[in-house]
């Protein structure tokens, strides 16, 4: 037992001498994302970004059947985005590498027509839809029947509207542009 304690005492100075500071290989936090948004011409808004990150699904989750039941979705309805209304959207170029294509629609005639006309293109590009104005589960189901192979999720759109400087929908947002 004495030898054990003696060995332990002798090793302590060696351990202290050999102790080195940690080397950080990758740091995923603590840096502002503003330069990235400046590069694509989007106005920074910290609260919008944090809200969007909390609500953003992972890429793998976007192409799998939703685990959310209709009862769960009806709990968030109605969805009303005060900054967004149906109307024309001028196309513009953005530079957002890695951004998955998505679109914004509402429960209105313009959005229904837009979704019907573009559903095959949207499906081919793997786009998912955010329904930013919808009153009821029945209305959401009617939109889903227009494009059953595309994920449509009821989501408030005011933060996205502020971030992307949008006033109207329907609109498609990709890594390279915003267009109607």
TrEMBL record:
The keyword Signal applies. Pfam families: DUF2859. InterPro entries: Integr_conj_element_PFL4695 (IPR021300). Keywords: Signal. Residues 1-19 form the signal peptide. The keyword Signal applies. This is Integrating conjugative element protein. It comes from Saezia sanguinis.
């Amino acid at each position: 037992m004495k030898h054990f304690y003696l060995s332990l005492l002798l090793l302590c100075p060696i351990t202290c001498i050999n102790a080195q500071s940690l080397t950080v290989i990758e740091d995923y936090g603590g840096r502002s994302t503003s330069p990235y948004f400046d590069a694509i011409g989007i106005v920074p808004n910290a609260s919008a970004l944090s809200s969007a990150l909390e609500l953003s699904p992972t890429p793998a989750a976007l192409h799998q059947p939703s685990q959310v039941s209709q009862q769960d979705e009806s709990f968030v309805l109605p969805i009303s985005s005060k900054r967004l209304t149906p109307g024309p959207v001028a196309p513009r170029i953005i530079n957002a590498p890695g951004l998955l294509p998505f679109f914004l629609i509402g429960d209105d005639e313009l959005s229904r027509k837009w979704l019907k006309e573009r559903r095959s293109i949207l499906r081919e590009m793997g786009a998912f839809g955010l329904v930013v104005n919808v009153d009821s589960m029945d209305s959401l189901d009617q939109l889903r029947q227009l494009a059953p192979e595309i994920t449509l999720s009821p989501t408030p759109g005011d933060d996205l509207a502020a971030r992307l400087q949008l006033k109207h929908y329907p609109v498609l947002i990709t890594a390279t542009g915003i267009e109607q």
